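Batch job 17 of 40 flagged for manual review because the log was empty.
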Amino acid sequence: MVPVRAHVRRFRVVVCGIRQWLWVFVGDDVTVYLIADGRGYDQACMVLGADFCGVLERDGWAPYRRFEHASHQTCVAHLLRRCRELIADSVAGEAKVPHAVRRLLLDALAVRDQHAELLCARGENRDVIDTFLEQPGVQATNWRAEQAIRPAVLNRKHWGGNRTWHGADTQQILMSVIRTARQQNTDPIALLRDLQHQPLPTVTTALKLSTATRLPPAAVQAPQPARGP
């Protein structure tokens, strides 16, 4: 059975002049955006649930480690970038360790491309670095979440943020529907137009979720409303 995979990313936004965090959770056939008042474990649980047991593809943010039932894949691109920074800042032989880590990560990517097996160095973070070598379909980097969050970054650049909490609610729901529709090759404009023509609130049948690769049930419900103090 194909494991459930969730790519996670978050960044800072503003609602009513108050700092909030916009999260994005990307599955194989559904994307959920959430505007929340924090960037910790509790906010991630609002979508994933505390018992998430799939593969969590993410950056090195510490709260993700609290998902004890999940398999983890930390973003190799982030680790390579950190190695480059350490090498650039090092003096008098201090770059030996980041050089060694960089070579190990590049070797792992090369092995992935050759569809072979790699014996990684032992350490407490081994199980979050080489998951992509052990489980088919797991990505070495968090590129899916990075791509999904770009539209929100551009929105913030152009208009700064939401002036009302109702606007924040609307944004997270519309972005989730539009992105999910595009993942499933469905026209989001036509989908939203058809929903607006309905006399009563209704659940669309235009979007389908596979039973093997969907996000947890909490993720496919309407995101929790963004709320102020």
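Reviewer: the log was empty due to a logging misconfiguration, but the result itself is present. The CA atoms of residues 104 and 121 lie 8 Å apart. Unflagging and moving on to job 18.
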